[in-house]
Amino acid sequence: MNQKKSMNPIPLSLRDKKRYLVFELISEQTLFERDVSFDLKNLLLKLFGELGLSKMNYQFIGFDEKSRKGILKCRHTAVEDLKAGILLLKEVNGVKILPRTLKTSGTVKKAKTFL
Question: Is the dihedral of CA 41, 52, 15, 106 positive or negative?
Answer without folding.
Answer: negative
